[in-house]
Amino acid sequence: MADKKGNKELKKTSNYVNRELSWLEFNYRILGEAKDKTIRPFERIKFLGITASNLDEFFMVRVASLMDMVHAGYNKPDIADMTPAQQLEEIIPMTKAFMNSQYTTYNRSLLPLLEKNGLHVITHHEDLTEEQQNYVDDFFDKDVYPVLTPMAVDASRPFPLIRNKSLNIGALIRKKDSNEVEIATVQVPSVLPRIVHVPSNQEGMEEVILLEQVIEKNISKLFLNYEVTCAHPYRIMRNADLTIDEDEAADLLKEIEKQIKQRQWGEVIRLEVEESIDKALLKELSQQLHVDKTNIFPINGPLDLTFLSKLSGLSGYDHLKNPKYTPQPIPELNHDESIFEQIKRKDIFLHHPYQTFDPVVQFISQAAVDPNVLAIKQTLYRVSSNSPIVAALALAAENGKQVTVLVELKARFDEENNINWAKKLEKTGCHVIYGLVGLKTHSKISLVVRREEDGIKRYVHLGTGNYNDVTARIYTDTGILTASDSIGEDATAVFNMLSGYSEPASWNKLAVAPIWLKNTVLDLIRREAENAKVGKPAHIIAKMNSLCDPAVMEALYEASNAGVKIDLIIRGICCLRAGVPGLSENITVRSIVGDFLEHARILYCYNDGFEEIYMGSADWMPRNLDKRVEIMFPVEDKDAKAQAKHILDVQLADTLKAYILQPDGTYEKLDLRGKEKISAQETFCREAVERAKKEKESNQEKRVFEPITNTLSKN
Q: Which residues are part of the catalytic machinery?
């Protein structure tokens, strides 16, 4: 262990990076993919759209939280010695610089590239040809005008509620017989497609314009007795961070329903406007919305770049997109046999989206109709809108099985969806738990209890990702299906804890937050450090989404100083500094940004040659380790361990998509000179296809030779 002086040195604020600034660095890495000329054009615009949606959530939650702290007079500095006010002072200008880079990429690089490849995005209605103008006007009259609700503001009509993230057009209008100017606003309807196709006279060219430009061109039709002196799009972001006093809430479900409605009334924390907006209109909007100059973001281009995800989905441009990948079947599973019999023989390792999510759905679906299944218990954090897992749970309850489901109502931005599912599950007879007071349940666990000839048998699924069949096609996650008795006992204890608050005295295999998991992680890191101190080889590889827990980072620094080789694969936030002499020279950090969203959490410890691998639902963040119900579980099956270690090895070998953290806190891609070009995600796709193909060929051979073998054995 480091001495007191050493510990004091490790706690120095200069050793750490502010969490929010680290997140902005992450969004810059995604922007880097949008700028990368080696990537297909439609993939680049998709990445640019992702940067916009990421920034929206960052403001609605993280920036909003900092503003709340400033309003409340909270001045405690963070781990990097920055107060909330100081963080905002850096975040706002850094965000404006980031957005400038976004739109430079859009205007100067992507728009000309798209036009070169046959897609012309018309940036302003004044650029329409006469034929296109006639088409757009007719489209407005027939399809758009009936949906719009123009809102004028005067003494009898106050400025309306402008919804969070909605796109609007503000206008200054004047009665034709008066000099008095009034403000008016109209919401661009989200029920209509934002991308409007217009006729093109250019052979081989598809042309589109955005809906707000169609409305702006025809806005005078909404105010017939007025002269429209100017009209410009604008967009606001509101504080969407729910504040729920769970101890005082008599009914958590009703309280959250109320808070969701309040989200539309949250403080305006960002106003986006066109750079060319009329100054008088901007002044009026900022006054009506109570936004100061600091939080106004002038933009050189269309507001809300999230429309690019729709643009990247246009048909007819497959040559400008990556080939669509189909998740492959898992070779170890035979669909002709009960999934429970197969799990009982051997743990099944799952790697999504390279391998299909179907086995997880089948695990619950088969349990729902299996007459020997007595009970199903499951946690749900984020599920799809048409979830086959929820449907299976409902069917199980209707079939008379004991079904217990913890639906986490506090899953941010999924609260409304989860409330709806919770109500539907209750109606089918499921016992629904609405999370725990003061804690989010973020663990991913399912338990099936089955009556068999030799007694009760428990089957468990544990994973790193949500029970969401849609995101399982784009998020990289891992999991296991197991019939381990010790894990089955622990799974029962988890659900008893969730439903009855009964904490077990000890655990067989699982490490559960908020009480036990953090200490387990710290013990594993310190064990490697102790091994290194006595001259033994020591190695830690950890893959996660975010790292910002002070105790864990300090332990990693101590382990690095003891001589432990530490390789971290961290997609997003990393508050630790890597490669700093005397602090972290044995630590490397890489972030992989690819077609799929890296989401799995895997921990490898060399353990003096007795290698151990763990997977789980938790990132190494205070909120996960101290304020959530999370599960970390060992991977003990020999083949499953090998597959998990292979994932880490391939990602550490990635030379194409890996960004390497530098000692100064910036990230750089590797210099490819003299290096083999390796993309971890492409490697996993290729390997999954090859394994599935090999298994298919093997099964075909069995079908050919089994009848012959059976005949020979009879003779």
A: 442
